Amino acid sequence: MNIILIILGWWFLLLFALVTWKRKLFLSTWKEPYFLDTPVLIESDDWGPGGPHHAERLEKLLECLAKHKDSVGRTAVLTADCVLSVPDIRAINEASQPIYRRKMLDSCFPSIHSVMKDGMRMGTMVPQLHGLEHLNSTAFLKLCHAKDPRVKNACKDDDWWDWESLDSPLQAHYVDGSCLPTRPLPIEDLEILIKEAVDQFQRIFGYPSISTVAPCYLWNDDVERIWAKNGIAYIQTAGYRCPARDQDGRYIQDKKQIRIGDKSTAGGQRYLVRNVMYEPADGKNTPETSLKEAIAARRQALPISVSTHRYNYSRDKEEFILALEGLDLLLSKLEEKFDNIRYISSPELGQSIEAPHSTIQNPFQNTQYPPLQYLKGSKKLFPFVQRLFHRHPKLLYISIGTGLIAPITFLALLLRNNK
């Protein structure tokens, strides 16, 4: 009995010391949203202007999603992060003065826009603002007129070219990547750029975008403040923020760990976080590896937010077939493993976090779904511990080394399974 009391006393002292040391971290982690349901998001960047085959590929992708249903009968939904325009190369080349001209998604790429509208009506697609374009127009125009070799292919008078052919720094939207290190844009330019983007988005899709994700994950406080002025309430991230790239092209992070539900100090928006990678065209992800990441997210009572860019579906036909089959398999596995799947888009998830008891509304289809269910009180303890151990391995090593892992795990499992 004395030995048991000594061990319990030792654990109590260690736990007290740990809580005192990491009190701020523990409190902020406890205040995060914890989900009883399993929200599943399919986040896909870069949809917009494209080659003739892009409409067909997007249509097949949306048809695949329509086969999948969640626990309330909703189909899987693509949060399509949309680029609204590309440069009008012919007009730029023919102009006597350096003047930037755009080819808009709806007027110049009607087949793609038509598929998007069909997907919105069917509920398999919710558009989200990615950017007015996937480059910085001022920098691009300057390089075009200087006949810079980095934009040689882009400046040919073709009906279509892919911005992915540009050097990576040139694909950034909210910074000038024409030289390294990248340079921030003047606030006046950002004001014009973002206002034009939100206005064009509403014109093209018939409803404003209340959420966004920055091209190349490059944005800063100025961008967030201007987003807020223009109605952007939620920011999709990869768990970090980068305001610039350095002399060697490496990303500079000023927010190294963004957690779901965190609020921007600049604009007041809530951050959302992608946590499952499905980018098979990069040769890194398979349905099996993505499923493991999804299970890890679910163990932490987090949404399963799948990142899968357009290029997985828009390049080589064989790559497209494999990527689509893999996504189909991944969603099937998730539906088999979890009985409370809820397919949802990014803006809807943001609204649910803001107002947890609110009905889920898709304004692009004018439909409503039941509120998401959240964990409360002691039920949060197990995923709370999982989040701490997953994000901060040092805490896991300390818990194992001191033996605290035993009582913490026992208590968390006991409270999780307590009816």
Describe what is shown at a glance:
The protein contains 16 helices and 17 strands. With 419 residues, it is an alpha/beta fold. It folds into two domains: 1-34 and 375-419, no CATH class; 37-374, TIM Barrel.
Structural class: alpha/beta
Sketch the major β-sheet.
Answer: 6 strands, parallel
Number of strands: 17
What characteristic shape results from the CA principal axes? globular
- Separation, N- and C-terminal Cα atoms: 31 Å
CATH level 1 class label of the largest domain: Alpha Beta
Number of domains: 2
CATH topology description of the largest domain: TIM Barrel
Overall residue-averaged pLDDT value: 92
Q: In which range does the helix fraction lie?
A: 40-55%
Uncertain residue ranges: none
In terms of DSSP E residues, the strand content is 5-15%
| CATH architecture descriptor text of the largest domain | Alpha-Beta Barrel
Task: Give the C-alpha Rg.
Answer: 23 Å
CATH superfamily of the largest domain: Glycoside hydrolase/deacetylase
